[in-house]
From TrEMBL:
CDD domains: DnaJ. Interacts with HscA and stimulates its ATPase activity. One of its GO terms (biological process) is protein complex oligomerization. Pfam families: DnaJ, HSCB_C. One of its GO terms (molecular function) is protein-folding chaperone binding. Residues 5-77 form the J domain. This is Co-chaperone protein HscB homolog. Belongs to the HscB family. Co-chaperone involved in the maturation of iron-sulfur cluster-containing proteins. Seems to help targeting proteins to be folded toward HscA. Keywords: Chaperone. SUPFAM superfamilies: Chaperone J-domain (SSF46565), HSC20 (HSCB), C-terminal oligomerisation domain (SSF47144). NCBIfam families: hscB, PRK00294.1. One of its GO terms (cellular component) is iron-sulfur cluster transfer complex.
Amino acid sequence: MGNPCHYALFDLQPEFDLDLNDLSERYRNLARQVHPDRFADAGESEQRQALERSANLNEAYQTLKAPARRARYLLSLQGHDLPLEATVQDPEFLMQQMHWREELEALHEQVDLPGVATFKVRLKDAQRALDERFAQIWRDAAAREEAERLVRRMQFLDKLSQEVRQLEERLDD
């Protein structure tokens, strides 16, 4: 059995803008239906199918709930697979990345928790701006290159957000 489209699993249209509460609700309802425990008394084949359906559902949910992964997935549905770790041929953003990394390093060295909180807010704003821009252009074939560049930027900001959370935890200890 092939993987159905992630959107089809949730009975949603392939859109970038999603109501995440609605997505979570649909996920919980489906997860209850396909949970492997419900098939504990079933045959081995049915149990295996239940596990597979549950794994597919989890993968679909993780992909759709995260903007960068959702954006990548939408492009892949249109036949544009991006390499996971694409080099950023984007000198302006490369400079921005270096600046953010230096700033984060300084915040770490200064053990500046309020500074980290401010940095996090700026990062969230940058992510929101990328999300909004991607939502505007992802369907436009003429803007494909920009859409791919935005996805790469989104992926970088996701990674940077993880690093900020880890730094917060270290500084909190």
